[in-house]
Write a structure and sequence with these properties.
Layout (H helix, E strand, L loop, with lengths): L2 H25 L2 H11 L5 E4 L2 H16 L4 E3 L2 H4 L12 E5 L6 H12 L3 E6 L5 H5 L2 E4 L15 H21 L4 H6 L5 H7 L1
Parallel strand pairs: 1-2, 1-3, 3-4, 4-5
Helix pairs in contact: 1-7, 2-7, 3-7
C-alpha cells in the first residue's frame, strides 16, 4: 500500500467517525430525556456494564458519573453472574451497552437487575433486540457501518456511544447541581483543578 493511499484511507476513516458522532445529535429525543431524569433522580447506585469495546465505554461512563458525585461503578457482566448481582437493590440503575443486544451474560444481568427492583437503560444499535426489549429505556446509537473498521470493527459505534454517554453525564451533573468548584476538592491531581481555578 502506497503512502498516499494510507493517508487517503485514514482521513476518510476519521471523517466517517466524526459523522457517526454528529449523527447522534439527531437521534436524541424523549428516551434520552427520560434517561437523563432517571439517572439524575437515582436514589441508589448507578452500575454500568458491557463486554469488549462496549465495556470500555461503560467503564468510562461510570468513572465520569462518579466524578460528578454519584455512586457509580462498572460491573463486568460475567463477574456479575458469579455473585455480585446480589448487591442490586430497589432504586439502583443498570446502564447496559451492547451493539447487537444479544450478549447472553449482559441480558442475564439485566434480568437479575429487574428481578431485584433495579431499572435498566440500554445503549444499542438494535432496539428490538432482547436487550432493547428488556430495558426500561432504550437509547438507539446506530451510527452506520461506514464508520466501522471494514464495516465490522466497532470504531465509530464506540465513539458514538461515548458521545451519548458524555452528554448524559453532563446533563445529569447539571440537574443534580454538582458544581465545578467541587472538582478542586475531589480532583486535586492532574490539570482539572487548575483549569477550574482559571475559570
Amino acid at each position: 500500500m502506497e503512502n498516499s493511499e494510507i493517508l487517503e484511507r485514514s482521513r476518510e476513516m476519521i471523517r466517517a467517525e466524526g459523522e457517526a458522532v454528529i449523527a447522534m445529535a439527531d437521534l436524541l429525543g424523549e428516551p434520552f430525556l427520560e434517561a437523563v431524569r432517571m439517572v439524575a433522580a437515582c436514589s441508589g447506585v448507578v452500575m454500568t456494564t458491557g463486554s469488549g469495546t462496549s465495556g470500555t465505554i461503560a467503564r468510562r461512563l461510570a468513572h465520569m458519573l462518579a466524578t460528578t458525585g454519584m455512586h457509580a461503578s462498572f460491573v463486568h457482566p460475567a463477574d456479575a453472574l458469579h455473585g455480585p448481582s446480589a448487591s442490586v437493590q430497589n432504586g439502583d440503575i443498570l446502564i447496559a451497552y451492547s451493539k447487537a443486544g444479544k450478549s447472553a451474560e449482559i441480558n442475564h444481568f439485566v434480568q437479575v437487575t429487574k428481578q431485584r427492583g433495579g431499572r435498566v437503560i440500554s445503549l444499542t444499535w438494535e432496539p428490538e433486540s432482547e436487550l432493547g426489549k428488556l430495558s426500561d429505556i432504550t437509547l438507539v446509537v446506530r451510527s452506520g457501518e461506514r464508520a466501522e473498521g471494514e464495516g465490522i470493527l466497532p470504531f465509530g459505534s464506540t465513539l458514538a456511544a461515548g458521545a451519548v454517554s458524555d452528554v448524559l453525564c453532563q446533563m445529569v451533573k447539571l440537574l443534580r447541581g454538582f458544581d465545578l468548584a467541587t472538582l478542586v476538592q475531589t480532583h486535586p491531581s492532574g490539570a482539572t483543578a487548575e483549569l477550574v481555578r482559571k475559570k
